[in-house]
Design brief:
Radius of gyration: 52 Å
CATH architecture of the largest domain: 2-Layer Sandwich
Number of helices: 11
Number of strands: 12
Strand content: 15-25%
Helix content: 40-55%
Largest sheet: 5 strands, antiparallel
CATH topology of the largest domain: Heat Shock Protein 90
Shape: rod-shaped
Structural class: alpha+beta
Strand order of the largest sheet: 2-1-5-4-3
Number of domains: 3
Length: about 500
C-alpha cells in the first residue's frame, strides 16, 4: 500500500477517493440532519396539537380543569397513538387507557412545568424501555393549583427509520467510494500512460537509437505538450549526436592527413642518406604540418570552450576606426601580392566594448578569405558603422560569392565552403565556425548578407551597458586607403 501511494497514480487515486469521501460525508450528514429535523418537527407538532385538543376538552367555561370531562383520547384524529396524563401535586387526575410513563417521570415533568409555568419538552424512556418524546403543558386547576397535561408518543419507530437510513447511506457511500476509486484508478492510468511510455523509452534508449519517438495518441493538453516536447528533445539530441559523429569523423580525417604526410616524409628521409638541402626540405615540410596541427588543436580547443560557455571575452574599449585601419594594414601586403587592394571605410569615430584579440581573429579570417576570392585589380572593402543596437563591421569582396543553397554550411564545422577560405583553420573548415562562436560569445552574430555577386560578411557587436558606447566627437579625415573609398556606399557589391 505504501509503495502504491508513493506513485503519482496512487496519490491521484487517494486524493480523488478522499475528496469523494469528504463530499459523501457532507452529503450524508446533511441528509440525516434534514430527515431528523423534519421528522422531529412533525412529531413535536403532533404532540402540541394533541395537547391543545385535550386541554380544550378538559377545561370548563372558566378555563379550569374539569374532572367531569369526557375520557381523554388515546390517539390523534389521524390515528397516531398519543398517551396523555393530567397530573397535579395531589396525584393523577385523568389519563388515557394506557400510560407507559413512570410516576417518577411524571412528577419530574410536573415540577418543571409548575415552576416555569411554561411548556416543557423531554426525551424519556418508558417503563417498557421504549424511547418517548414528551410534552408537558401547565393547566389551571380549580383550587388555584397548577395542573400539568403530559402527552407523549413513542419515537422508537422513527429512530429505527433513521438507523435504516444511516445503514442505507453507509452502504451506498461505500459502493460509491469503490466505484469512484476504481474509476479514478482507471482514469489516472489512462492519463499517465504517455508518462509511462516516455519513462520506458527513456530507460531503453541509447545513442544508437535516438530516432525513436513516443508514439501515443494524446489530446492537445498538458500531456500532449509533454509528449511533443519530449519528441522534440529526442530530435535535438539525435541532431546533436549526428553532428558530433560527423565532427569526430572530420576531425579524425583532418588529423590523419598531416600525420600521414609527416610519417611519409620521415620514412623517406630515413630510408637513405640525403643531402643537407633535402633534409632541410623535409624539416620545413614537417614544421608546416606541425604548425597546421597546432592551429587545428587550438581551434578545436577554442570551439570546445565556446560550446562549454567558457569562452569569456576580455573586454576593453576599442576605437573602431583605428581598429579597422590596423587590421587592413596587416593584410595590405598580402592583398597586393594577390593583385588586390584593401579599402577602409571607417566611421567618423566611436568605441565598442570587445576583446580585441578575438575580434582581430574574426577580421583576419574574413580578410584572408576575401583576398583569396577577390579578382585581380578589385578591392576588398572593410567598413564599420554604428547602428541603434551597437556596431556593424563588414568585409566585402567582388568574388563569386556563395550559392544560396550552400550558405547554410558556411558556419558549420568542417564546412566544405570553408576549407579554402582561412589560414587559421589550415583548410580544415573551422575558421568561420570559430568566428561565429566568438561573435556569439560577445552577444553578437556573424552573418552572410550578400544576395548577389560578391561576398559580404557582417559582424554585429552589441553595445554593452556601461561598457560599449557610441561616441559623437567630430571625426578627422584619414589619408591613404581610408579616404580613397569614401565614395563607396555600404552595399557597393550587392
Amino acid at each position: 500500500m505504501t509503495r502504491f501511494l508513493a506513485t503519482t497514480r496512487g496519490r491521484l487515486v487517494a486524493f480523488s477517493v478522499g475528496i469523494l469521501a469528504l463530499a459523501l460525508l457532507i452529503a450524508d450528514g446533511t441528509v440525516l440532519a434534514s430527515l431528523s429535523l423534519a421528522e422531529g418537527s412533525e412529531s413535536d407538532a403532533v404532540l402540541v396539537s394533541q395537547a391543545r385538543l385535550i386541554s380544550a376538552t378538559l377545561e370548563d367555561a372558566n378555563g379550569h380543569v374539569s374532572l367531569n370531562a369526557p375520557d381523554i383520547p388515546g390517539e390523534t384524529q389521524s390515528g397516531v397513538a398519543v398517551d396523555a396524563t393530567v397530573i397535579s401535586p395531589t396525584g393523577v387526575l385523568a389519563q388515557t387507557a394506557t400510560q407507559p410513563l413512570s410516576r417518577a417521570s411524571l412528577d419530574t415533568l410536573l415540577q418543571h412545568a409548575s415552576t416555569t409555568r411554561a411548556p416543557v419538552w423531554a426525551d424519556l424512556v418508558d417503563i417498557r424501555g421504549v424511547p418517548r418524546r414528551a410534552y408537558a403543558m401547565p393547566l389551571s386547576g380549580g383550587s388555584g393549583q397548577t395542573d400539568v397535561l403530559v402527552v407523549s408518543r413513542s419515537v422508537g419507530e422513527m429512530q429505527s427509520r433513521q438507523r435504516r437510513t444511516v445503514l442505507f447511506l453507509l452502504i451506498g457511500s461505500v459502493i460509491l467510494l469503490l466505484v469512484g476509486g476504481t474509476l479514478a484508478h482507471w482514469l489516472a492510468g489512462r492519463a499517465l500512460r504517455p508518462v509511462r511510455t516516455i519513462a520506458g523509452l527513456a530507460r531503453s534508449i541509447s545513442e544508437h537509437d535516438l530516432h525513436r519517438r513516443v508514439d501515443v495518441k494524446v489530446p492537445e493538453d498538458e500531456l500532449g505538450e509533454l509528449v511533443a516536447t519530449f519528441n522534440s528533445m529526442l530530435g535535438r539530441l539525435e541532431s546533436s549526436f549526428d553532428s558530433l559523429s560527423r565532427f569526430t569523423a572530420d576531425a579524425s580525417h583532418e588529423l590523419r592527413a598531416p600525420l600521414t604526410l609527416m610519417r611519409s616524409e620521415l620514412e623517406g628521409a630515413l630510408n637513405r642518406n640525403r643531402s643537407r638541402e633535402e633534409y632541410k626540405r623535409v624539416l620545413t615540410a614537417l614544421h608546416a604540418e606541425v604548425d597546421h596541427l597546432s592551429r587545428l588543436a587550438d581551434h578545436l580547443l577554442m570551439l570546445a570552450r565556446a560550446d562549454a560557455g567558457a569562452l569569456v571575452p576580455q573586454r576593453e574599449a576599442i576605437d573602431v576606426a583605428d581598429f579597422l585601419h590596423e587590421s587592413a594594414a596587416r593584410w595590405e601586403t598580402v592583398a597586393e601580392e594577390r593583385g588586390a587592394h584593401i579599402h577602409v571605410s571607417p566611421p567618423a569615430s566611436g568605441q565598442v566594448s570587445a576583446d580585441p584579440r578575438l575580434i582581430r581573429r574574426i577580421l583576419d579570417n574574413l580578410l584572408d578569405n576575401a583576398i583569396k576570392h577577390a579578382p585581380g585589380g578589385t578591392a576588398v572593402v572593410l567598413r564599420g558603422y554604428p547602428v541603434e543596437s551597437g556596431w556593424n563591421m563588414e568585409v566585402a569582396d567582388q568574388g563569386p560569392g556563395v550559392p544560396a543553397e550552400r550558405r547554410g554550411e558556411l558556419f558549420s564545422r568542417f564546412g566544405k565552403f570553408d576549407t579554402a577560405r582561412t589560414p587559421d583553420g589550415a583548410g580544415a573548415g573551422l575558421g568561420l565556425a570559430l568566428c561565429a562562436a566568438i561573435a556569439r560569445a560577445h552577444g553578437g552574430e556573424l552573418d552572410y548578407v550578400s544576395d548577389g555577386p560578391g561576398a559580404i560578411f557582417r559582424l554585429h557587436l552589441p553595445v554593452e551597458s556601461g561598457a560599449g558606447r557610441l561616441l559623437t566627437r567630430k571625426g578627422q579625415s584619414r589619408s591613404g586607403t581610408a579616404n580613397s573609398l569614401s565614395w563607396l556606399p555600404p552595399r557597393a557589391f550587392l
